[in-house]
Amino acid sequence: MIEEVGTIVSVTQEHGVQNIWVETAIKTTCSSCQAQTNCGTSVVAKAFSPKKQSIKLPYEHAVVIGQKVKLGVPEEALLSASLQVYLLPLLGLILGSSLASYVMPFLALESELWVVLTGFIMAGVVFLLIRNKLAEANNLQYCPTLIEVYPNPVETISVKNL
Questions:
Q1: Residue 43: inside a domain, yes or no?
Q2: Which of 65, 68, 80, 134 could be a cystine partner for 150, CB 3.0 to 4.6 Å?
Q3: Does 155 fall in a domain?
Q4: What is the pTM (predicted TM-score) of this model?
Q5: How many domains does the chain have?
Q6: How far apart are CA 65 and CA 10, in angstroms?
């Protein structure tokens, strides 16, 4: 299970169900790298990556805004989604290009541009199909789950006589 700690930023009621909005800070590996001052990738990562991400989760117990929670995603689900998003479009590119290189000479289209274009179109179609499949509402295996709600810390101030 891949775990992340987030903060409750909002509590809403929808159709009699209490939902909490949890915000997590997106971390990049560049922040822990020692070569980040000399690396162009870290500059791009800092400039274009969003800093916070919010997710809505149902939760029936009382919580306070600012309270910390632990979220988790099963590693198998993350690996499966990654393979689908990265590997299947690549296979679509190869298959589309191979089919186009076989079919295009019969259509009197001898240019390699048609083969490349067909491969990219096939990869794009496969990517859109996978994206729509993963975004379906009943695909809850890819959604983070609430593992633990940390107790709300009570701040106390002690004063000593000096």
A1: no
A2: 68
A3: no
A4: 0.62
A5: 1
A6: 6
What value does the CA radius of gyration of the chain take, rounded to a whole number of Å?
Answer: 24
Residue 39 lies in a domain: no
Rounded Cα distance between 123 and 127, Å, is 6
Q: Is residue 40 assigned to a domain? A: no
Q: How far apart are CA 37 and CA 29, in angstroms?
A: 13
Q: What is the pLDDT of residues 72-103, one digit of tens each?
A: 888 888 888 888 888 999 999 999 999 988 88
Strands 68-73 and 145-149: antiparallel
Nearest C-alpha neighbor of 47 from the set 24, 22, 30: 30
Q: Residue 24: which domain range?
A: 2-32+48-149
Q: Please, what's the b/e burial string for 108-129 (b: 16 or more CB within 10 A of its CB; e: otherwise)?
A: eeeeeebbeebbeebbeebbee
